[in-house]
Each structure stands twice: as structure tokens, then as C-alpha cells.
């Protein structure tokens, strides 16, 4: 059992695993913009609506409040 009052005896670096760096990721903003354009042009499904944006703003604001106050904050339904 981990005791925060005692120094760690495990060699954490020896437990690390090499992760291959062989996948290239596209710019996230560009990828989401392309999804939006596909939605507009092809009438494809689009997951992020006004409510998703509002929830994102709410989460960001509550995250800042949580950090400022040093406590967990419950996220109410919109």
C-alpha cells in the first residue's frame, strides 16, 4: 500500500514502456473544421452543436473556479 509519508522505493523509470512515435496527428482545429464543412456540404452528421459548445464553456469556467478555490465542483446540467 502506498504511504505518502514514506519515500517511494519503486524504480518508476524502469517500469516505463517505449511508445512508438510512428503516427502523425493532424491539426485538431483543422480536423474539426473539415468535419464541419463535410456536415455543411454533404449533410453529414455533426456531433458538436450549440449545447456541446455551451457545455465546453461551462466545463472550462468550472475548471478555473475549481483551481481558484482549490476544491472539486459539481457540474450541473445545463
From TrEMBL:
This is Gfo/Idh/MocA-like oxidoreductase C-terminal domain-containing protein. Gene3D superfamilies: Dihydrodipicolinate Reductase, domain 2. It comes from the Bacteria.
Amino acid at each position: 500500500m502506498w504511504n505518502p509519508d514514506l519515500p517511494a522505493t519503486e524504480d518508476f523509470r524502469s517500469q516505463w514502456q517505449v511508445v512508438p512515435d510512428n503516427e502523425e496527428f493532424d491539426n485538431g482545429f483543422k480536423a474539426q473544421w473539415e468535419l464541419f464543412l463535410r456536415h455543411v456540404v454533404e449533410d453529414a452528421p455533426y456531433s458538436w452543436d450549440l449545447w456541446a459548445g455551451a457545455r465546453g464553456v461551462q466545463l472550462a469556467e468550472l475548471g478555473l473556479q475549481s483551481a481558484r478555490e482549490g476544491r472539486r465542483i459539481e457540474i450541473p446540467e445545463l
